[in-house]
Amino acid sequence: MRSILRKLKPQWKAVLLIMALLVVQAVCDLSLPTYTSALIDTGIQNSGVAYAAPIAIRSSSYEAVEAQMNDTEQQLWAQSYHKNGEVYTRKDGVEEKQLDAVFAAPIAKTALAARGIAADDSQLALMGEQNIHTTAIAFITSEYEAIGIDLASIQTGYLLRTGGKMLLMALGITLAVIAVSFLAARIGAAVGCDLREKVFRQVVHFSGAEFSKFSTASLITRSTSDIQQIQLVITMLLRIVAYAPIMALGGIIMVIRTSAGMEWIIVLAVALLLALIGTLMKIAMPKFKKMQYLVDHVNLVAREILTGLSVIRAFGREKVEEQRFDGANTNLTRNMLFTNRCMSFMMPCMMLLMNGISVLIVWASSHQIDAGALGVGEMTAFITYTMMIVMSFLMLSMMSMMLPRAAVACERIDEVLRTEPTIRTLAQPQDASSMTGVVRFDHVSFHYPDAAEEVLHDISFTANPGQTTAIIGSTGCGKSTLINLIPRFYDVTGGSITIDGVDVRDLSLHELRDHIGLAPQKGVLFSGTIASNIRFGAPDASAEQVHEAAEIAQATEFIQSKPTGYDSPIAQGGSNVSGGQKQRLSIARAIARDPKIYIFDDTFSALDFKTDAALRRALGPKTAHSTVILVAQRISTILHADQILVLDDEGRLAGRGTHRELMETCETYQQIARSQLSEKELKEGA
After folding, report:
1. C-alpha dihedral sign at 446, 448, 450, 454
2. What is the pLDDT of residue 483?
3. pTM given for the model
4. 535 secondary structure, DSSP code
5. What are the φ and ψ backbone dihedral angles of 103, each rounded to 5 degrees?
6. What sign for the dihedral angle of Cα 377, 127, 129, 75?
7. What spatial distance separates the first Cα and last Cα of the chain, rounded to whole Å?
8. For residue range 41-78, what is the model confidence (pLDDT) as tens digits?
9. What share of the chain is helix, strand, coil (3-state, %, to 5)?
10. Closest C-alpha among 508, 362, 358 to residue 426
């Protein structure tokens, strides 16, 4: 809960405004039952006459009432009225509400006496204040009729005034609800936007180690579903949870003010509600906590299936994968059905509880009404206040069932935000603006996080500008891992890598990578056009530079064959171009950057031999003053490299030299060469 509330800190002004609006809404809400009570008791039962102190009274009745008063009451009675013919009228400026408490009992005695019932103070006390007041007002209304005062006009005026006040309160509630909903939605959206931005910025700076810790599917779920859950709960917190305690406290205060002696009913209702909610929470809570992880798994399975759809079809695994997805989907569905059934079971129980409480209040109130301690309108108000209190606790309880899932989502987001990227730039990095591109590996070793064994062991070599350094070895020997250490996708665990004598860890990540043109093993293209993909690493590249890069990469032919040429669209992931075309555009992207260091991670493997040879010939002049490091599987690609590094199966440097030198000194290289080239080709290469 605290972690969710902390995310509201930047929006504290809007939150304070919401709290103020909620107080206004609560005041209006809590006032409505009072007006409803007044409409019933005064407007309907008492014909709109609110107080027992009459506006006017006949002389005979005036004297009869006076006879029922003590000396103090008679003095106040005489001071409040003056005679006007045969009628006594109340003096201007006299507060009728103050007179009501004094004159109600004498007027009630007079009314009873007129019926032939003698009532002293002790007998009158048995009637109850409500019955005394009602009897007094009944006497006053009969006086008004005898005098000729229009009771219908009095009643209509009272109903209109009270109804008007209720309409104003309803309007205040409406405006407050609209404003709170608007602000809560904006705050929720702002928090969601802020979290998505923070998560994205954090993930962008993750190294391979962090991506190994969080799966891609999990990061997608955390960035979408989890943040959406937090956004929803924050909106609900501001609209419901913040309002519930205000309403509960206000309702309790209003109930105590009624002095109806039925507070025990509220205690009983809340106790039963908490018992019901507690039972359901104990049953459903584990399922709520499990839900986000099941969503993760469905996302993971769906992503794997959609990404590998062509392979699945090729091996006829459609049914198996359908069953696999169905299993993950069924687990999530069962979990959600269970929680939804628990929530559905709660509603009829709540209706039974609320209706049962209403019946109990009516039963208890009937005795109070009979004793004259409570009016019908007051009973109605008490029922309304009780329902408000119960609904407030219900809203809090309902949110308490949503909060665990949001808390899990919040913890998952915080886990991403708390993760410090292992690859970081120093506070004061060294300048790399005049870099020439001399790459030196000095006894480099590396192992992946949490791995027991090292992937690379004691690798040392120097790659100079104007030279091509090739790396070859069996599958899985660590070739791609080795070149990934140069742009610091991972950091070495032993030894050092320097560029122009400066450790790459002492350079700014941005400047380091700005001098590197990488063509990865798997060509990755982005949605846009051919030109935008070539310019990806060099946004300011001119059209001539783009065309030159495409020509060197041997991509001109297929680009010009398209109707719109360089403006031809590229689908997400480059799904509308072939593997070879994708690879050539990936190479063109690296060339367009004109870097100091070129890294080709087996990028020529998707090209035919003719295109491979033509590309390498065209690439030579472009890279004459740059350092070229390439990983290859084919001997033909690296025959003329200035330096060839051979890695054995354990990630050790088995040999280093030119093709001719390695054919004489390195058995591992000889085995690879003989498996790919004929004797004639070997002699020609030598």
Report:
1. negative
2. 92
3. 0.69
4. G
5. -95, -10
6. positive
7. 71
8. 888 888 888 888 888 999 989 888 888 888 888 898 88
9. 65, 10, 25
10. 508
pLDDT digits (tens, 9 = 90+) for 239-277: 888 888 888 888 888 877 765 677 788 788 878 877 887
| Strand, helix or coil for residue 2 | helix
Sheet with 56-58, strands from edge to edge, namely 56-58, 87-90, 81-84
Helix, coil or strand: residue 576: coil
**Residue position matching structure tokens 């059905």:** 337
| Cα dihedral: 184, 188, 193, 197 (round 10) | 130
What are the CA-CA distances from residue 173 to residues 45, 185, 326, 369, 381 (Å)? 28, 18, 48, 31, 18
Rounded Cα distance, 83 and 85, in Å: 6
Residue with tokens 């309007």: 171
List, in sequence order, every residue forming a beta bridge with 503; answer none if it has no partner. 498
The CA distance from 180 to 18, in Å, is 6
Largest Cα–Cα separation, the chain: 142
Measure CA 152 to chain center. Answer: 58
Q: Which residue has the tokens 């007006």?
A: 35
Vertex 16 angle, CA 11 and 20, to 5°: 150
Cβ-count burial of 441 within 10 angstroms (0-12 exposed, 13-18 middle, 19+ buried)? buried
Q: What is the DSSP string of 136-176?
A: HHHHHHHHHHHHT--HHHHHHHHHHHHHHHHHHHHHHHHHH
pLDDT in tens, 532-577: 999 988 888 899 999 999 999 888 988 888 889 889 998 887 878 8
Give yes or no for a contact between 242 and 180, defined as CB atoms under 8 angstroms apart: no
Burial label, 121 (beta-carbon count in 10 A; 0-12, 13-18, 19+): exposed
State the pairing for strand pair 468-473/627-631.
parallel
The β-bridge relationship of strands 627-631 and 597-601 is parallel
29: CB partners within 8 A, 6+ apart: 169, 173, 247, 250, 388
Location of structure tokens 């120093």: 426
Percent of the chain with pLDDT over 90: 17
Place of tokens 């065309």: 547
Residue with tokens 């959406």: 228
CB 630 within 8 A of CB 470: yes
pLDDT at 551: 92
Give 429: exposed, middle or buried? Use CB within 10 Å, 0-12, 13-18, 19+. Answer: middle
| Cα atoms in the Cβ-side hemisphere of radius 13 Å centred on 446 | 27
